[in-house]
Amino acid sequence: MNTIVCVKQVLDPEIPPAKFKIDAEAKKVIPPPGVPPVISVFDERAVEAACRLKDKHGGKITVISMGPGKVADVVKHAISMGADEGFVLQDEAFEGLDSFGTAYVLGKAIQKIGGYDLVLCGRQSADWGSGQVGSILAEILGIPVVTLACDIEAADKKLKIKRIVKDGYEVVEAPIPSLVTVSSELGLPRLPAGMRLMIAARKQIPVWKAQDIGAEPSQLDKAKAHTEVTSLSVPTRKTECEIITGNTPSEAAANLASKLVKLM
Amino acid sequence: MDSHKGVLVCGEIVEGKLAPITIELLGVGRKLANELGEDLSTLLMGSKIGGLGQEAIAYGADKVYVAEDGLLDNYNSDAYTQVAANLCLKVLPSIMLLGHTDVGCDLAPRLNGRLGGGLAMDCLALSVDPVTKLLVSTRPVFGGNAHAQMVSRSARPQMATLRPKVVPPAERNDSRQGEVIPVEGKIDPSALKVRVVERIKEEVEGVKLEDAEVVISGGRGIGSAQNFGMLRELARVLGGAVGATRPACDEGWAPMTLQVGQTGKVVSPKLYIAVALSGAIQHIAGCLGSKYIVAINKDSEANIFSVAHFGIVADYKEVLPALTAKFKELLSA
Amino acid sequence: MSPVSTSYWGIPGYAIFWVLFVIAFGLFAQRLYFLFRLMRLGKQENRFDRIGQRIKTMLVEVVPQWCNLKSVTRKDLAGIGHALLFWGFSLFLISYIIFIGLAGGFGISPVIKDTTFEMVYFSILDIAGVLVSVALIWAAIRRYVMRPQRLEPTAEAAIILVLVFFLMVLNVSVVGFGYAAHNVHTSWPPLGAALAGFLSGTSLSQGTLEAVYRGMWWLHYMVILGFMVYIPRSKHLHILLSPVNVFFKTLGPKMVLEPIPLEEQASYGVAKIQDYTWKDLLDLYSCAVCGRCHANCPAQLSGKSLSPREVILNLKEHLLEEGPGLLAAKAEVSSESKSKTMIGDVVTEEEVWACTTCGACQEVCPVDIEHVRKIIDLRRNLVLTQSKMSESTQLMLKNMQSRGHPWAGVQSLRLRGDWTSGLELKILTEGVNADTLFWVGCTGALVERNVSATLSLTRVLKAAGVDFGVLGDAETCCGDPARRAGHEFQFQILAEQNIEIFKSHAVKEIITSCPHCYNTIKNEYPRYGGDFKVVHYTQLIADLIRQGKLKLNSGLNSIITYHDPCYLGRYNSVYLEPRRILRAIPKTKIREMERSRSKSLCCGGGGGHMWIEEQPGTTKINQMRLEDVLKTRAETVVTTCPYCLQMFEESIEHKGIKDSLKARDLVELVEAAMKKS
Q: Does B321 touch chain A if contact means CB atoms closer than 8 Å?
């Protein structure tokens, strides 16, 4: 079972909210110093799903990541979990692309890699959270897509996928190849076992530029973007929290209950 | 662009009725259509639509496209995408709206991919820019730490999924006139690649999280699955539901279906009691719509206190039993 | 005439003597050889360095019996008993060699018999025999009547007690009957002579006495031979092997973990008995089943299933069971154990995770068994090979990988470098170097209560004029939690990263506030190329006070007790400096807990247990330790470790005694004492 997993490097979502700063003019987030970026939470689950399938059915896991800077780190993170190899898609032309542009670049890379039974993505990125790249990518590759997966199994040349729906779960059957977007309900991603940390740290990750994957400039033209951000702001929350006290916590609790019952 | 006109709402039918989100979409869709001076239409897909077309007209639609087919009985990604996409290509709406539900989260990106439009998901507000006449979608980003406004200058349709319960529902006016148009064309079964095998309903005892007037959520500080029983007890007394943060679900103390947060359930009850949870932005995003937020946490610096209306800084184990008891006493009186 | 030099039913005594000896020795040697071969199944390990020091250590520990005397307490004086037994029996052993072996078997009896040497030696033996008998009776009463928790009333122990006692009786009897039979009239040795005197007074004939004498002599000889055969087949193997085990002990810190070589293997850590090193297997043989480790283990004392004694004994049993099969299969690939899984059947996963690595077991072990590393090796297999651990452990290790510290979730409240805000500190960024680095540690930077202590230390160091730099948000975990949880590679990556950072800033000396960082950087980093001078802040502050650079004028007016952290005390023998500092603070009354210094009871936070949740037991370890504190009636419990401080705060709150007992880091008291009164 050969899988290709798309991963994104994002600002660490776990920072004190007071440290979250933006540059409203540039419509960008200013990363707090000393906080290294991490692999997007849902993409990590996608890697975990790929590893689980590899545990059962063997095959190869290839990881790709598009982004500036040290995105090779998230590819290495995926390799430490169990992926076999990875590629970084890095080019000035790839910066600031919208969901369609991103899906296009990923699609080109996937077509170059080829030979896949399953493409895995996170359901949305942990930063901008547009939530569309997976579905657009499936459309580009011409393969079926199943979203919000919390469990993926393979049997009889088909994929059996459990999805999150409003009141519970849904189990669907999809052909091979398909694209599946993974949600956090898949479970905790694994720790690197054995020497995988070392192996991943030492691995050389090739970098592909636009010409390496045959990406046409016309498709990367930002003037033709499908969506653009016109403003970025930090909402101010003005709530004064009234701390309810008492001689003991139990007394405080009683005071709180009385207050709330009067309000409701 | 000029060829694209009108607002199209992709409606959802739940248990034979128009879903509440659809009624909300019709409300905001009507406003947008009025500002553009264009029509508001709705697409309803299912196996038996019946009088729902008329109902949609009563809520503000000028046209209702009805696609009735056995294959559309329950949500089926391939079938719904096919029908909706084909209709869009015929009707060419300028704006297309869906609800940010499990249906919308699946259907909208697929439609967007197929139609080549521009999509903004999980929107908190929709408006039309008075100058450019473009749809401006406001959505939370970075776990809810920031809000972004998005537009699609040239791509059509301009698409958005709207978060439930952020806009008021449309007003019903049964005297409104409109057109119910059956959608032509049979669904091509060969294009249905993904098959639904089974549906498993998670039985939730008591009140459903999304509908509850009171929600009591537990976080990482709860410490064990057993201790969640204290929250269930309080929920019982208050006639509410229990929720949990993602870390608490990750630890297995509560089922994933009780997860409140950016990617879990978004709730807006009258009273939201946050117990032993730090108030990470991703969680707060799921409960900010609550009327009163109460925080119980032994860390006075926890972020939850910055969004709560009331709080107690103490170990929840010493607060909850007394809280439950007092509520019981006051509510039975 | 020596009983050996006569004939019995036509067979020369010498023949009988030597045939018996050869059979007994053969059985003895065969068993030892078997055990040796089993030991050789283990992996390689170099314990042959510094031979001179090893010999010296062995002699110092064994001969004066410091190995046992070190763990004598008011409640458990057994170490004295064993010392008596050991010295007494050593004298007997020498006597067997001289008076039975040489005199009997080699026939030099006429040379020795009736000499002053013999008389003197036998007299000493008599006294020794009395002491040994007293010790044996005392031991028997303890084990079978008083029944302390650490001693099990087994049959094996009874056999030994009875056998040795029998030897004491036989010894006197042989001498007594011998003198009586040969009409030797003497007053020395006292017991033998007394018996002889008594026997002479009876109506027993010379012939009877001679026959009984000979019978006793041979019986005595055969019991000794029987003992020799029994030793390697019982826990008394420790008689032979414990000095050997002491010879091969770790020189320096007792609790040492070996790095895992960087090569891809099918299995990491220990999953099968032969994955242990030969020294680990030797440890299993050396156990005398004294139970001291069991009685001092905080996990065991708080009702968890882990008992260090049981781990060692179960592993030993497993080795003896699997051994023959493994030896047979050695030529081919070693077979998978079909009957038992080591982690699961022999040692349960629960036992593996319950250990806090406090080292109390190794501190009290008279034969220097290394319990801790055996358990960590099992954790390594669970984590690195089987990927089996609790979710909280996994979350902690994941956070180490993604964020470089174990405090998952805390980053939503504060970041690594936040504690430095508003302070004038030299932050080591690119190009900025410092000779001395204050290494804060994850807990001291990220957890609110411990940040207070960090700030306190910063102020104290500055007031004393210490020039130091800090890494701020560039500081990552020293790696201790990962290493103790078994993820050796995560630890190695962090260690190498940190050493790189230290070198890039030309750091020479490192001040730590956390004993875990102290232990890790000081004792474990050198294996990865990082050799720096590392001090714990208590060593530095004690020195500054001594030099007069810190004046503690303001009295504390409190009764305090000091809790020795495991990683500062037992691991690194730093007991004096914290106490010196406390004594330098005016108006403090220091009350020591009963279990203090090397006997200090763990707070429960080590071995990764700030994150690995504590198993259900009869109580929690930190609550147990709080009881020790309460017994002193102190108003303040002082410690020098961030985990211990957390654990005390938690137990104090749990017990609801925040108003009567305060938990403080020592540096907070120092700072308070520095204020002008």
A: yes
